[in-house]
Amino acid sequence: MRVLVIAPHADDETLGMGGTIARLADEGHEVHVAVLTGHGDLPAHPLGGREIWTTVRAEFEKACGVLGVQAFYYEELPAVMVAEQPMWEVNAIATRLVERVGPEVLYVPFLNDLHRDHRALYHAFSVVWRPYTPLGRKIRAVYAYEVVSETHLNFPYVEQGFSPNIWMDVSDYLETKLTALQCYESQLQPHPSARTVEAVQALAVWRGSQVGVAAAEAFVLVRKVA
What we know:
Blueprint: E1 2-7, H1 12-26, E2 30-38, H2 51-67, E3 71-78, H3 87-101, E4 105-109, H4 116-128, H5 134-137, E5 141-145, E6 166-169, H6 174-181, H7 197-211, E7 216-224
Parallel strand pairs: 1-2, 1-4, 2-3, 4-5
Antiparallel strand pairs: 5-7, 6-7
Helix pairs in contact: 1-6, 2-6, 3-4
């Protein structure tokens, strides 16, 4: 099957579901990954110059090679500013991407992640996967993944937290995920930050313990047509 993973920022795909990507690719599925944000067309981005994205995109491509990604794509929505862009423009980018790839399975960030880029992109792709449209009907399953340092920093006493109902056994692919994660030298932080190899490994082991396997990644099933 053809799978499309939506990464608001380069590294989300590996942090959130690197083991699943590696497993799906190893099983012969076509895995495509799209990074939706970058410098944008701003004369000056508040986070810094274009070299930031040049660095992290090089790391992303190296990680994709480790994970076995078939193809990757870049869009240029300005990072940390997606929610400030006209909604129709963000929706149009999401639509064109799905039209280009033609996925049967779509993975997106969790709706209530702390990061507003994640939230805005979840909503944009929810427009695309509407099941009563010709394009949406082609997407047979939609899953939301969790990202350490974003998914677990929402406010579960105010809005719904991440409560998975799908687990992917990645016991045989955890080391591949961790190897891919180490490609992101510019993004990893010192222990005990959540954005560390140790934290990502601990989460995989914890998720695995919930379903009786050595390591797993967890998802929320948004919609599936059998």
